[in-house]
Design goal:
heterodimer; A: 4-stranded parallel β-sheet; 9 helices; about 35% helix; B: alpha/beta; 5-stranded parallel β-sheet; 17 helices; 19 strands; globular; binds iron/sulfur cluster
Chain lengths: ~190, ~475
């Protein structure tokens, strides 16, 4: 999965502690593939009983083709299901901006080409206000520069150096691990029996 | 040498390699897998022409999507069946031991690991499941991973990890008779929040933790993730090590003597440095219950729901108002006395024999309120057997509760066991997120004692009220 730079309008869901059961409810986990989960993204918030999408829900309000989600703090808490980033990716989302992320979600997202952009609460509030004022606010996220620009302001965001390299070069972490097998064997030999 | 924490010691002894700028290559001693988070990992391996490196360190079970109805007529739906079949085939081809439903060692992944003696002090344990933290009760470093990482471990028996920070959580004092590890978890999460321990591995210490039974420590470590922690752990003591003696996969003979000695030496050195500290007076904790849609939204039983205005920040006020609306509760409303219609005893949090004993101790000679459906779901086949040997199933059935087969059941509601839209349930599981136990369902998380008290009265009830005449089963 590769990521360099995107420019997109926002999907706005400024709620804290959005858990993985909201991102993709458990009853949709009975799948053996990664595809097709975008339709189920935020299912129980998104659809009414008759299966129609609520017109006022964030995904419906957003400009079609929006690829960046703005969320509240501790995004992705709860279960380790990688179905959460799969559903986000399948829907078309390539980056999530939030004041903080749950650990497992952050790790899962990076492996699936989704950027977790951690910003201060104040900056998240600024983005939200700018979006309210001018629906269609464009946000640019540049991983090379670790910079986010919106409304004439550019900020830097932290990102794990190793994950960044993997995403910039479309490299898989498993390739790196596989290149370490001599050391792994040596470790196993030294620890045999324990 | 600088004093080290228990976590530091395990971490250090499992780092295979760490290059500058790269995460550590961490060796995994035990990899547990289940049907929901593994199929795509096996597909990854197939696509890349890789094989499972250490099938002998990999163990599988089916728990999330298996149905628990004992009548036998019920079957998993087509999607679940396909998922179960995929696990069976994947394990068969790779030579991985699989504990199938109905077999002697079947059960919820975090219940069977310890009871089989697969879980060991000082080990690194991972599973594609966030409650892997449970195994930390034995002084193991155990944490949940995503499916891509499941593939990494299958292929290399290693993971790439950045070293987490450490948190010292100290429960002082003596717990009251009706207070269990579940109440400690809820009290901690309410205090520090669902993100309070993000990026940290918790070590639980203090008098109240020392006094806990080994099973209660599993409950305590289980819910570490609900406070955002990577893992939770308790240093092994004699009680813990003896619990593992004679288990099917535990070392025997000389190997046992040797292991025992090593395990008992595993602890944080005096003066070891933790990145943060939390202190809770255990004697202050009361029976706890959640009122909202995160495990942090919890209060002592008997307290009213909070008023959103009581919260400090705008986002907390918004979250509280949203949660109360979802739960159909008013601000400042008393929770005690609220009518409920389902009670669920089970899950990897509270589905062990001790939990069933606690529930049975209240139910003996009493009945479940007529409007209440009570499910008792043992965490494993071993737990089921033990409960039946002690006659607990008889107590449950006589009281009008359903005695089910092992599985995750209503904890995750993807297997047929669920609550209806708008329905109120008291659950001993770990998550009260919106829809967690069924779309639109409303969950009150509580201990087995509190949940059982609600089953008997049909309303949220302080367990103390029903405990007067029964001997205390906890904290013995
Ligand atoms: S019982 Fe619940 S929390 Fe535990 S493994 Fe099963 S679904 Fe997950």
């Amino acid at each position: 999965m590769r990521f360099e730079r995107i420019t997109s309008t926002l999907i706005v869901l400024p709620i804290d502690n959005i858990d993985t059961d909201q991102i993709i409810p458990a009853r949709f986990l009975k799948t053996t593939s990664r595809e097709g989960l975008g339709e189920k993204l935020f299912h129980d918030w998104r659809y009414s009983k008759d299966g129609k999408a609520h017109s006022e829900f964030a995904l419906s309000i957003a400009r079609p083709g929006s690829r960046i989600l703005l969320a509240g703090s501790n995004f992705g808490c709860g279960s380790s299901r990688e179905h959460a980033p799969w559903a986000l990716y399948d829907f078309g989302i390539r980056a999530v901006i939030a004041p903080s992320f749950a650990d497992i979600f952050r790790a899962n997202a990076a492996k699936n080409g989704i950027l977790t952009v951690e910003v201060t609460r104040e900056f998240a509030a600024f983005l939200l206000e700018s979006q309210m004022r001018a629906l269609g606010l464009e946000v640019t996220i540049d991983l090379q520069a670790q910079a986010l620009s919106a409304g004439g302001i550019t900020i830097e965001f932290p990102f794990d150096a190793f994950s960044r390299q993997c995403l910039l070069h479309g490299r898989d972490e498993l390739d790196y691990l596989l290149s370490q097998m001599t050391e792994v064997e040596a470790y196993e030999n030294a620890h045999a029996g324990s | 040498m600088e004093p080290q924490t228990l976590f530091d010691k395990i971490w250090q002894s499992h780092v295979v390699k760490e290059e500058p700028g790269c995460p550590a290559v961490l060796y995994v001693d035990l990899h547990l897998i289940h049907e929901v988070t593994s199929p795509q990992a096996f597909s990854d391996l197939r696509r890349r022409g890789l094989r499972v490196r250490r099938p002998d360190r990999t163990f599988a079970t089916m728990d999330h999507s298996v149905q628990t109805n004992p009548t036998g007529a019920a079957r998993e739906d087509a999607a679940a069946t396909q998922q179960l079949r995929a696990l069976s085939e994947n394990c068969g081809k790779a030579g991985i031991s699989l504990f199938e439903p109905g077999s002697e060692h079947h059960g919820i992944v975090h219940v069977i690991g310890p009871e089989l003696g697969l879980t060991r002090p000082g080990a690194t344990i991972v599973c594609g499941d966030s409650h892997t933290s449970t195994h930390g009760a034995f002084g193991a470093l155990a944490f949940g991973i995503g499916t891509s990482e499941v593939a990494h471990v299958l292929a290399t028996q290693c993971l790439l990890q950045r070293k987490p920070r450490t948190m010292d959580v100290r429960f002082t004092g003596k717990l009251r008779p009706w207070v269990s590890a579940k109440d400690m978890c809820l009290a901690l999460t309410a205090k520090i929040g669902t993100g309070g321990a993000t990026g940290h591995v918790i070590e639980y210490r203090g008098e109240a933790v020392d006094q806990l039974s080994v099973e209660s420590r599993m409950t305590l470590c289980n819910m570490s993730i609900e406070a955002g922690a990577r893992a939770g752990m308790v240093a092994p003591d004699e009680k813990c090590v003896d619990w593992l003696k004679g288990r099917p996969y535990s070392p025997r003979g000389l190997a046992w003597t040797d292991a025992r000695k090593r395990w008992l030496a595993l602890r944080s050195d005096r003066g070891a440095n933790f990145d943060s500290h939390v202190r809770i007076d255990g004697s202050d904790i009361d029976a706890m219950i959640t009122w909202g849609t995160t495990p942090a939204m919890a209060v002592a039983v008997g307290k009213p729901t909070p008023r959103p205005d009581d919260f400090a920040t705008e986002s907390e006020r918004a979250a509280a108002a949203k949660a109360l609306a979802y739960m159909g509760l008013k601000p400042g409303e008393p929770l005690t006395g609220r009518r409920i219609s389902t009670v669920f005893i089970g899950s990897c949090t509270n589905g062990r024999i001790e939990d069933l004993r606690a529930a049975a101790s209240l139910l003996r000679g009493r009945s479940v309120a007529p409007h209440v459906r009570m499910l008792v779901v043992p965490g494993s086949q071993q737990v089921l057997r033990q409960a039946e040997a002690e006659g607990l199933d008889g107590v449950f059935k006589a009281a009008g509760a359903q005695w089910r087969k092992p599985g995750c059941s209503m904890c995750i509601a993807m297997n047929g066991d669920q609550i209806a839209e708008g329905e109120y349930a008291v659950s001993t599981s770990n998550r009260n997120f919106e829809g967690r136990q069924g779309k639109g369902g409303r969950t009150f998380l509580a201990s087995p004692l509190t949940a059982t008290a609600a089953a008997i009265t049909g309303r949220l009830t302080h367990p103390r009220e029903l405990m007067q005449e029964v001997p205390c089963v906890l904290n013995a």
